[in-house]
TrEMBL record:
Name this protein carries in UniProt: Bifunctional polysaccharide deacetylase/glycosyltransferase family 2 protein
CDD domains reported for this sequence: CESA_like (cd06423)
Keywords assigned by UniProt, alphabetized: Glycosyltransferase, Membrane, Transferase, Transmembrane, Transmembrane helix
Domain of life: Bacteria
Compositional bias annotation for Gly residues: 321-339
Family per record: Belongs to the glycosyltransferase 2 family.
SUPFAM superfamilies: Glycoside hydrolase/deacetylase, Nucleotide-diphospho-sugar transferases
UniProt source species: Streptomyces hyaluromycini
Pfam families: Glyco_tranf_2_3 (PF13641), Polysacc_deac_1 (PF01522)
Region described as Disordered: spans on this chain: 300-367
Transmembrane annotation, as ranges: 397-424, 695-719, 725-747
Gene3D superfamilies: Glycoside hydrolase/deacetylase (3.20.20.370), Spore Coat Polysaccharide Biosynthesis Protein SpsA, Chain A (3.90.550.10)
Skewed-composition ranges (Low complexity): 300-320, 354-366
């Protein structure tokens, strides 16, 4: 903030308002940033949840019918376990009378726990190929699964066909699933099963490079020998039949514990286990199969050495095809791997092999023979995994809450539109009846108070409009310490116009409430009209405004404020808001007898009522809302006079608009909090607390604060879900708003051409208003305080005759 300089060139100390403005400006930036961070957090939560549900980045393509000409025959004809030891492909078959029970697509919160219970009951281990997004959503199930002795493998993070994906996407799918496993159960794994895979003879030229890539990074790819086809839901007996291998053949058998309704699988599983045990079969995991084959190979090698006197290398036992030994260097697909080696397949004797740490070097971990594919997660892998689980938990909790709020906000918005239309129509018909009258016509003179602070551009226009008043008035201009010659300009204008009913009072700068109170104290008449120094009245405005005082119950009257500088985009947006929002709202509140605000641009009060509630308070930034609520609580009736029109200069820039609306919304919150005890007031004075305050809180604070959910969900749906449906829904809401706006314009006899700006207003202006309100809420919650902020005026709003419609 620059320090003002006097006309003699000497620097003078800033005024109290200038100092307060400087302090306020220093505090606003962090709160604006916090408001933006809240919206960013909301967006991130939605994107994360959408990614988990395959709405963001989802790919439903599944490749079928591709050639397998580039896939080695020994792989196509081999067993269901594929490794790349030493860079050479080899497959492992399941030994006879052995079942490697596998489950795909889990975990599922309904069916996976039932599967685990059955496995535990029959003392049967299994291998679960898990979808990473599901792991992150249901980590406790995975932890129980591993603790129970079952083995887990990767089934990608979002269940996509990897043959269509780039290397970067493949790495991401694997890494994120490893992180999910680390966060859920403290492990990573070397087992992998591709989504939509089946037997090895289904490997094609597009998926083969994927298996080679992952094999080179230490992963063991697992296929099936026998598919239960339980996902088809053919019935329990057929599931059992289709899962049974012929004769005494061993098999890797596929079931599903997720991916759809699995009640038939749950019923078939116990029958299948009992049947296979009765046939003499044993159950093991994928690591158990490899361990069993490895032991057989070692025994065969020892026998060959003993009989031939030499060592035979390679895997020669039946059921293992391909040769090659050694390790390959990891490329980072497994979280936690730095330099070092990544195990290929499973090391013999149940050893986990060499597991990389987060840095360089290796360590050896002994794990269960049936869980030999597991690696203990350490370092950043573990911490990142836990962070992922926490982030997902927040998203899983937040999205249902946000969806519920969205529903409530949607109902509130539609309810508000409905209430405004119905009640505004009734209000218009009541007030415009030929026989309607407030009582005996009010003709006595009234006092018009014009508080002014640095209003040199506007004050002459204001006085000129008052000079044309058809109702007898006295004008009191209260110069609140202006430094631009406002009082001199006011006196000169009054002299020029021959207005001998104008008094100019100067006071030390003390703020608008103090200026208004000064004017009330000096008023000569029992009715005082208050207006802003940048506002102009029509000739009949004062006459219309004071007529409700014919009713002795009326203590204050709100006029109809119009935007004068409406021929700019920002002005047109505010014009729509004034007509549709403020004035249509006031019709509703008037009929409900709970008017929350008399606009500072045009309002009238009984002088005794103002003095009775202590005058205009400096406790809040919204002194107009504060005095209105105080009038209600004092038992006075506050009404809306639509025919009393005032033309005001609205902010001409986004910065000024933000400043004004920020003050308004924050001041409204202050006023509501100040008068919170009105909720318990009795009788007529408590009507505002019982009716008005809940409506104001719901429609002016709660609904606008959460209204961005509608836009965020709409954009999200357009991009990731169904663009056409989301667009139609948005257009439907816009249509309802246009209908309300058109009706409001009809009631106020405004030209419809400004409604052409409404779609753009919904896309830009409304979002800014949301941010302003969120900013105000953060200020209120953090205990910030603001002072009066002077807006820059241009004086472009002249007399009403010069205002274009």
């Amino acid at each position: 903030m620059t320090t003002p300089t006097s006309s003699r060139g000497r620097r003078r100390a800033p005024t109290r308002i200038e100092r307060a403005a400087g302090r306020a400006a220093a505090l606003q930036k962090p709160r604006v940033i916090l408001a933006l961070l809240l919206l960013l957090a909301l967006t991130c939560v939605m994107l994360l949840d959408g990614y988990l549900r395959a709405e963001v980045g989802g790919d439903q393509r599944v490749r079928t019918g591709a050639s397998s000409s580039k896939v080695p025959d020994k792989v196509l004809d081999g067993g269901p376990i594929l490794t790349f030891r030493g860079g050479q492909a080899s497959t492992v078959s399941v030994p006879s009378k052995t079942i490697a029970l596998t489950f795909d697509d889990g975990p599922n919160p309904t069916y996976t726990p039932q599967v685990l219970k059955i496995l535990e009951q029959y003392d049967v281990p299994a291998t679960f190929f898990l979808v990473g997004s599901m792991v992150s959503r249901y980590p406790s199930i995975v932890k129980t699964m591993v603790q129970q002795g079952n083995e887990v493998g990767i089934h990608t993070f979002t269940h996509v066909d990897l043959s269509y994906q780039s290397d970067a996407r493949i790495n991401r799918e694997m890494q994120q699933t490893q992180l999910a496993l680390a966060g859920a159960a403290g492990i990573t794994t070397t087992l992998f099963r591709a989504p939509y895979s089946s037997e090895t003879d289904a490997i094609d030229n597009y998926s083969w490079p994927v298996y080679k890539k992952l094999g080179g990074e230490g992963y063991t790819s697992v296929f099936v020998d026998t598919d239960s086809d339980d996902w088809k839901k053919p019935g329990v007996s057929k599931i059992v039949k289709w899962a049974t291998p012929s004769g005494t053949k061993g098999a890797a058998v596929l079931f599903h514990d997720a991916g759809g309704e699995r009640s038939q699988t749950i019923k078939a599983l116990p029958q299948y286990i009992k049947k296979m045990k009765a046939k003499g079969y044993t159950f093991t995991t994928i690591s158990g199969v490899i361990q069993k084959r490895s032991t057989t190979n070692q025994q065969a090698a020892a026998a060959n050495t003993g009989s031939n006197g030499q060592t035979t290398t390679g895997l020669t036992e039946a059921g293992v095809t391909g040769t090659g030994t050694g390790t390959s260097t990891g490329t980072g697909s497994q979280p936690g791997s730095g330099s070092g080696t990544v195990p290929n397949g499973i090391a013999p004797n149940g050893e986990g092999g060499t597991t990389p740490n987060s840095g360089t070097g290796t360590r050896t971990t002994t794990v269960s023979r049936l869980q030999a594919a597991h690696r203990t997660a350490t370092g950043m892998t573990l911490y990142e995994g836990k962070a992922l689980i926490v982030a997902v938990a927040i998203a899983e909790w937040a999205l249902p809450v946000l969806s519920g709020l969205l529903f409530v906000v949607g109902i509130a918005v539609m309810g508000r539109f409905g209430m405004m239309l119905l009640i505004a129509r009734r209000h218009y018909r009541l007030r415009n009846k030929r026989r309607f009258s407030w009582g005996e016509t009010v003709t006595r003179p009234v006092s018009v108070i014009v508080p002014a602070y640095n209003e040199k551009e506007c004050i002459a226009n204001t006085l000129e409009s008052l000079a044309r008043s058809t109702h007898p008035i006295e004008v009191i201009v209260v110069d609140d310490g202006s430094t631009d010659g406002t009082s001199e300009i006011a006196r000169a204008a009054a002299d020029k116009l021959g207005m001998y009913n104008v008094r100019v009072i100067r006071q030390e700068n003390a703020g608008k409430p103090a200026a208004l109170n000064n004017g009330v104290r000096n008023a000569s008449y029992d009715i005082v009209v208050m207006m802003d120094g940048d506002t102009v009245f029509e000739p009949e405005t004062v006459g219309h405004l004071v007529q409700p005082f014919a009713d002795p119950e009326v203590g204050a009257v709100a006029g109809n404020a119009k935007v004068g500088n409406r021929n700019t985009i920002i002005g047109a947006w505010q014009h729509i808001e004034y007509v549709m929002g403020f004035n249509l709202d006031r019709r509703m509140y008037d009929l409900l007898r709970c008017m929350p605000t008399i606009p500072g641009a045009i309002g009238a009060f009984r002088r005794e009522a103002v003095l009775g509630v202590g005058g205009m308070s400096e406790d809040t930034l919204a002194e107009d809302t504060d005095i209105t609520i105080a009038m209600h609580r004092a038992g006075w009736r506050v009404v809306y006079q639509e025919h009393a029109k005032a033309w005001t200069e609205a902010p001409g820039s986004l910065k000024q608009l933000w400043s004004q609306r920020y003050r308004w919304s924050y001041g409204t919150m202050q006023a509501l909090w100040k008068h919170r005890k009105s909720l318990t007031d009795k009788g007529a004075s408590g009507r505002f607390g019982r009716v008005g305050m809940p409506l104001v809180v719901l429609f002016q604070i709660v609904t606008p604060v959460f209204a961005p959910l509608i836009d965020v969900f709409t954009i999200y749906s357009m991009i990731f879900v169904d663009f056409e449906a989301a667009l139609l829904a948005w257009l439907a809401v816009l249509g309802i708003q246009l209908t309300c706006a058109a009706y409001a314009f009809r009631l106020d006899k405004e030209k419809y051409r400004y409604l052409a700006m409404m779609p753009l207003q919904q896309l830009a202006y409304r979002q800014m208003m949301y941010l302003v309100l969120i900013h105000s809420c953060i200020t209120a919650l953090t205990g910030g305080r603001l002072r009066w902020q002077k807006l820059k005026r241009t004086g472009e709003v002249g007399t009403p005759a010069g205002v274009s419609g």
